[in-house]
Amino acid sequence: MAHIRTEAVCEAELDRRCTQGEEADAAARWLYTPEALTWLHAQLFDGLPATDLTLADGSQMVPGQFRQRAVAVGRHEAPTAAALPLFLARWAEVYGRTRRGEASIVALAAAHHRLAWTHPFLDGNGRVTRLHTHLVLRALGLTHGLWSPLRGFARTEARYKALLQAADEHRRGDLDDRGNLTQAGLVDWIHYTLDVCIDQVQFMAQQLQVGSMRDRIQAALAFEAATHKSGVREEALLPLHYLFATQAELGRADFKTMTGLGDRLGTQLLTSLLRRGFLATDSAYGKVRFAVPRHALRFYFPALWPEAEQDEERLRGEGIR
After folding, report:
1. Do 18 and 86 form a contact (C-beta atoms < 8 A)?
2. Could you give the residue range(s) of every CATH 1.10.10 domain in the chain?
3. What is the pLDDT of residues 258-311, one digit of tens each?
4. CA–CA gap between residue 201 and residue 205 (Å, rounded)
5. CA distance 266 to 257
6. Between the CA of residue 109 and those of 104, 195, 199, 218, 284, what are the distances in Å?
7. Longest Cα pair distance anywhere in the chain, in angstroms?
8. Assigned CATH class of 210-317
9. 77: enclosing H helix or E strand
10. What is the pLDDT of residues 81-132, one digit of tens each?
11. Could you tell me which CATH number the domain at 2-208 has?
12. Helix, strand, coil percent values for the chain (each to nearest 5)
């Protein structure tokens, strides 16, 4: 529950920071700062009971505080606490300032391992690192809230841990780069991270089936018109599909024009669509945007939420709309 809440808080903060162009890049760079890391950690663990913050040795973890002592994870001895500021500064410089585009994705994957290897907190490093990866992808404008690498990491947990550990190993001879750690292991980890991202994009594309959305909107409108007599008409198909495809907003006059109906019928249709949740707006006379009412989920995204019809029937029986 804390992770769900934190993800929502962090995404809201990114949305506040991200607008267009350089500001979006600045938001991504901010995520590589020590301040952002401690903020993420505090968001994850603030408010949890003391029992959840008690470590194996009986000490208490302080949310949002870098560790003050040495730690070892398996065979890996993390950098000393005194060296953490230098390691994190170098981490931010190398990965946080990578040029936008393909290089920033490769850098993000490498940064995931290097942050986990640095182990800046006494506990919660994996959670912070995975959330950091998810948020940077969002800040770069690559997820749009539709997919997340977190699902892929969770579904391949054994491989995730094995490749992280393999990238912790020391350099494997003169042909394995010139640093202290194995470059070959890091490259394998990067390939895995990219594969996870591609897999999750393909999975969600298959679930959403956006290419056939026009037909599904038409089916939802036809069912609504035939069964509910709510004033919703199939003439709404063209502007609804336009709003879905563009994720833009339309003025009410433009929406009515796209239906092909007269002003009176167009106004009635618009009112019905808003009342039934097919459209959303911020004010009584404001622009309208595409919305997904619960009762249309079985038409819009049948593979994503096949239980929607049963849920709708149950809520209707309980008198909840």
Report:
1. no
2. 210-317
3. 999 999 999 999 999 999 999 999 999 999 999 999 899 889 988 776 554 555
4. 6
5. 8
6. 9, 11, 15, 41, 45
7. 78
8. mainly alpha
9. strand 76-77
10. 999 999 999 999 999 988 888 999 999 999 999 999 999 999 999 999 999 9
11. 1.10.3290.10
12. 65, 5, 30
- 252-259 and 263-275 helices, crossing angle to 10°: 110
- For the record, the structure tokens of 273 come out as 């669509």
| Cβ count within 10 A of residue 300 | 19
Contact 301, 208 (CB under 8 A): yes
Cβ-proximal residues to 165 (8 Å cutoff; 6+ apart), any chain: 74, 76
> For the whole model, what pTM was predicted?
0.75
Q: What angle do CA 289, 292, 293 make, to 5 degrees?
A: 120
Cα angle 128-134-137, degrees, rounded to a multiple of 5: 135
> If DSSP codes are grouped into helix, strand and coil, which group holds residue 290?
strand
Termini Cα distance of the chain:
26
